[in-house]
Structure formats: structure tokens, C-alpha cells
Amino acid sequence: MQRCLVTSHDRAQLFAKHFGFCLLGRRPTPVPSPIHGPLVRLRNTPISEHPAPEHHPTSRRRLRACHECDWVMALPPLQPGQQACCIRCGGVLAKRNSLPVQRCLALAVSASIALIAAISFPFIRFSVRGIGNQIEVTQTATEMLAQHQPIVALMVLMAVFVLPALYLMAAIWVQISLLLPHRLPWSRTIARMLGHITPWMMADVFIVGTMVSLIKIAGLAEVSLGVSFWAFIAYALLLLATTLSLDSDWLWFSLSGGEPSAPEGIHTGATAASQNLAGCHTCGLIGRLDEHGHGSCERCGEKLHARKPRSLQYSWALLLTAAVLYIPANLYPIMYTTSLGSSDPNTIIGGVIYLASHGSWPVAIVIFVASVLVPIGKMLALAWLCLVAPRAPGMRSSTRTRLYRLTEFIGRWSMVDVFVVAILTALIRAGALMSVSPGPAALAFACVVILTMVAAMCFDPRLLWDEVSSAKIKGSDASIYDNQGRTP
């Protein structure tokens, strides 16, 4: 993220000149307009009733506890395009976007329109020897259901269509709520939902699966791309841009009309758990815990814990289950290919060998990395982190934290092979001449991907930093704040 060269005041004046209101929390300045009634009221409504946290008229410094290492710090003032990172582990604490409401709202509306177009027109068409088939993108889920794979069909439907649509509607609802003088009902509950949905949206992974499928069948049949194909690419890119444009720190500050006072006697340059505190993973606010190490966030209502309850036990159980399922996922066929009346089973490794032997090395490498290296590497990495977390705290914790971030990021990309099976099953339906049907390994492999993702979410990276002496953190401060966040 780059530093913006235009000051907030200059940007506010330019925006006020063209649109009739300012960004710095002053009263709106209406421009003459022949429009009257509700339209002019909406036009003259300020972007938000609350300015960015940096411009709020208070001397209180806003405190945060890092979600990955539990270090307590005071957030510095941020300009648009800047982000605040933890001085201990490098994790991102907050970021600031310019025009956060307008940008997120525009992208969410655009992504919604692209999604409607993607499900309304033909997606892909193929023909071979005069026999062809044309599908819509939603048939990738419905056809798996027709092939007696209801769980895989549900995974495809939720990850590609339902959850992204819910996310976009929630983002639109919250941003419109910020534009209005009074907040819409359930705005905070819907805002909490945004962070929980984000890891499960896989429209971008579906695009990669579509590209792999097209390369697989390009030499066997004539393929044509419909309007839905291009609309879906636009939808996936806009959805990604929407998630990146969401400024959660500014969002919660604006929804709540400010930030509640920090608990009394907080020390920066120390862990939150050592002070019987915890940082909220949803809105970032620091809250006081009870004698059992539990609590709830004062601002968003999310549950707070000093450490995730039974983090290692849950991670181990999910990893072992995924490891057991990974055996049939590789031994059994992931799909059956029928050509001229002859049916051939294809395993994951068999498909990689087939693609490599026919010269499709790029596709073979993508499938091998996504379906073999990533699942195995993620399970081994998480197992190693679970082993070292309670036994060797403080030893190369920063490196292990970066490994955890990597495993959490790459896990969802293993769904490429599942999406390839879903796309080919729906598209290639030419009877005995040429057809594809899912195998038993499709369900096992999809469960492996989901279980490893949940295992990574259950693991608490703060365990990697427990019992680290604050003396090892160079340049850290050790100030104490009163209940207003000020140094005595």
C-alpha cells in the first residue's frame, strides 16, 4: 500500500466542490439542485455520520492486541493507502482506504450485477462429431446432485454462489446503513457476518478450475465460451476487489459512533493475556476477561478468549481425520471418463501423469501442486506447528507465524480439482461417445480440503508466542494507559 500524496483536507474540499459534502465530519454543504424530496435528501447526506478514526475529536489513543502474537500496541494515525502492522510479528492490525463507503458499495453492486449476468446466460458449450452440450454455470452444482454427489454439489453451490451472494448483500446493506442518517436494523450483526464468510468464498478458485477444464478438453472437442464465462470472470475479480476494499476498522468505528473506552490500566509492549485482556477478532476492540479467561466484545458482541478453547485438540482431531480421508482420495478414482463406450477411471495422480504424457505440463503442474503438494504440505505444516506450540515457545516464533499464514492462505486452492470434476461432469454429456462422471474420491478429497481449512482456523497462532520475554522485542514500548487510553 502506498502513501497518498493528496492530504485529507484537499481531498475533502475537492469532493465537497463536486458532490456537495465533505469527508471530515463537518456539516454537509448542499449544492443547488432542482431535485426535491427524498432524492435530494439522499444526495445531500454525508458519506457517514462519523469521520475516520484519525479525525475523531478525542485525545484517546486506540489500542489493539495482535491476533497472531497477542502484543498490545497503540494504533498510529493512518492516511488513505496506509496500514498498521504489528511490531512483533508483522501482522496487519488495520488499514485505511480512501472513500471506503463509496468504493466498497460500488464494487459490491458491480459484483452483484456480474453475478446475475453469470447465472443468466450460457457458460460453456462443447461439440464433438456433431454432438454437443451447453451448460449454465449453476449446472456445475446441479449436475453433481444428479450424479448422486449431494455433499460435493452443496460445497460447490455454497462456495461459488450462495456465500458470495450473501457477502455482497451484507456489504451493500452495511454500506448503505452508513450513508443514511440512522443505521439500518441488524447492521452490526450483518457486519459480524462479513468476516466469517470471507474464507469460504472460492469464485477465484473456480476460475482456475474452469481454465484447467478447458485445457483438458481443448484437444478433444470444439469449445466455445458464452457470455456467462466473461461475466463470471468479472464477478470473481469484483468480488475479490470488494473484500480488499472493506475497511473493517473504519466500518466498526462508524457503526458504533466511535470507540468505547479501553479497560483501565492497559500496558502496551506486553501481551493481552498477561493483563487478563483479549482482542476481538471481528472489530479489533480490546476487552476485559473474567476469571475463567472468557468474555464478550463490548462493541460487536463477539466472544472473547485468552486463547481459543481446546485449540490444539481440535486441530489434531481435524488433521487426523483429513489424513485418513486423503488415503481413499488418492486410491479411488476422482472421476470416470467414457469415450466410445469404454469407461476409464482416473485418479488424481493418474490424471497428472496423463496430462504430462500428452504434453500439458502447465496443467499437470497446477493439478499436482493443488491436489498433492498443497494438501500434504498443509497437513505436515499444521501437525508440526501443533507439536512445537506447547513445547518450544519463543523459538523462531516469527518464522512459524509466517508458515501458519501460508498454510491458511493456500488451503482453499486445493478445491481446484473438485471444481474441475464438477465442470467436466456438467459439460461433457454426450452419452457413450464421450462423458464424464464423478468418482468416490471427489467427496473424500473435498472433505480433506474443508477439514484442513477448519483445522487451520482452529489453531491459535498466539500459542507460538506464549512465554516469550518482552525483553526480546526490540524497540517496543511499555506504557500504561488509563481507561481513556492516555498515558499518565
TrEMBL record:
Q: Which compartment or compartments is the protein found in? A: Cell inner membrane
Q: Which domain of life is it from?
A: Bacteria
Alphabetically ordered keywords of this record? Cell inner membrane, Cell membrane, Membrane, Transmembrane, Transmembrane helix
| Pfam families the record matches | PqiA
Q: How does it sit in the membrane?
A: Multi-pass membrane protein
A GO CC term assigned to this protein in UniProt = plasma membrane
Membrane spanning segments where? 104-124, 151-180, 201-221, 227-246, 314-335, 363-388, 409-428, 440-459
UniProt similarity note: Belongs to the PqiA family.
The record's annotation in PANTHER family points to: INTERMEMBRANE TRANSPORT PROTEIN PQIA, INTERMEMBRANE TRANSPORT PROTEIN PQIB-RELATED
NCBIfam families assigned to the protein according to its UniProt record, in alphabetical order? pqiA_fam
Supply the name of the protein. Answer: Paraquat-inducible protein A
Q: What is the lineage of its organism?
A: Bacteria, Pseudomonadati, Pseudomonadota, Gammaproteobacteria, Oceanospirillales
